[in-house]
Fold this protein.
Amino acid sequence: MSQIFAVSGVLGDGAKTRGLLSYAVALAGVDRPARFCFIPTAQGDHPGAVQWFKAAFGNDPAVEPSVLTLFTEPNVPDVRKHLLTQDVLWVGGGSVVNMMAVWRAHGLPEILHECWQNGVVMAGESAGSLCWHIGGPTDSFSSSLDAFSNGLGWLAWSNGVHDDLGDQPRRTAYRALVGSGALPGGYATEDGVGLHYVDGELKEAVAVLPGKRAWKVDADGNGGHRETEIVPKLI
């Protein structure tokens, strides 16, 4: 069984995002501490991102945490061996465009695909949600929201994250890009919502905040879009 958990994290609220991390751990279904590796490439392996991850788990006996950094060189002697021994890989947020370039330079897509096919739970927030899909709107190129369509494409849809942010028109931009054909149809998540895919198909949506939603968004064939609300299970 191959699993992906694609999340819009709760920006500025590590405690709530921690609930989504715990859900990813539960998906591994192991009866020992889950080997959980954080991959912060999208933030350039910023020390603050690494510290956030360490603080999120603390001394949690349910998790055996590790971090894979690639700057200025991989911090483990054998990246493939390390990742294949994990139960969950969590990809952090940041620049999805820069992350994909670095991953491809290091041969990560092939290694990650092998992990996915071998039952490792692939998860992440923001850039770490977009990457498993064909693409989605991103501000990685500039301050505006443009179409990113160079994702791994293991999930045959686009993805919109932080779909309810008021300070950036992500919701509007995603629907416009789908309607125009710049992006294929797909799924959008508001903050605090995660999409659980099994064998490449959406199984369920979950949320750590009440009242939040996911959305199925498709082109209507006339330059616009149609959307279907998905009510997530509160966890």
Remarks:
- The domain at 3-234 is CATH 3.40.50.880 (Rossmann fold).
- The mean pLDDT is 94.
- The chain has one domain: 3-234.
- DSSP finds seven helices and 14 strands in the chain.
